[in-house]
Specification:
alpha+beta; 3 helices; 9 strands; disordered N terminus
Length: 151
C-alpha cells in the first residue's frame, strides 16, 4: 500500500503531461481561415498569415471580395502598392526575406523578393519561398504588376 500511494502522484503527473501534449499535437498546419492568396502573372501564391491584428483585419477585409493592387518595384528588393484602405499597425524593427508580405505605413502592402530591415508590420509569408530567384520568378520578374489578394 505504501508503494502505491507514493506512485500515484507520479502517475497522475505523467497522465496530465501526456494529456496536455495531445491537444497540441492534433493541430498541424495553418487553419484555412489564416491563409491568404496572391494571384499574379497566372501564379496563385499561398500566404501563411501572421497572428496579429493587422493580418486579421486584412483577412476580414478580403472576405467579401478580392482586392486588386497595382504594385511597383522599389529598391530592387520589393514590390509595393497602395491597398486603398488603412489597417492597424504594430510596427517594429524586423528583418524581412524573400516571400515576406509586409504592411508599410498602414495602407501599403509589400511583397519582398530580397532581404531588408526596417520598421514594419509582418502580415505573412509566401509558402515555400526562400530565395530571391524563386520569388522574382513567381512575381514575373522586374517591373510593375497587378496582384490580386484574396482568401
Amino acid at each position: 500500500m505504501f508503494k502505491f500511494s507514493r506512485a500515484l502522484p507520479a502517475l497522475a503527473a505523467a497522465a496530465i503531461i501526456a494529456l496536455a501534449g495531445c491537444g497540441g499535437a492534433a493541430q498541424q498546419g495553418t487553419p484555412e481561415e489564416d491563409i491568404m492568396y496572391i494571384t499574379v502573372n497566372g501564379n496563385r501564391l499561398t500566404v501563411d498569415t501572421e497572428d496579429n491584428a493587422s493580418s486579421r483585419a486584412l483577412l476580414e477585409r478580403l472576405r467579401p471580395g478580392d482586392v486588386e493592387v497595382e504594385m511597383s518595384d522599389y529598391g530592387d528588393m520589393e514590390k509595393v502598392g497602395c491597398l486603398g484602405f488603412d489597417l492597424p499597425r504594430s510596427d517594429s524593427r524586423i528583418s524581412v526575406a524573400p516571400g515576406d508580405v509586409i504592411l508599410y505605413l498602414g495602407n501599403q502592402i509589400t511583397v519582398y523578393y530580397d532581404v531588408s530591415s526596417w520598421n514594419f508590420t509582418r502580415l505573412g509569408h509566401v509558402r515555400g519561398v526562400n530565395s530571391r530567384g524563386d520569388m522574382l520568378q513567381l512575381l514575373g520578374g522586374a517591373g510593375d504588376i497587378t496582384a490580386v489578394f484574396s482568401v
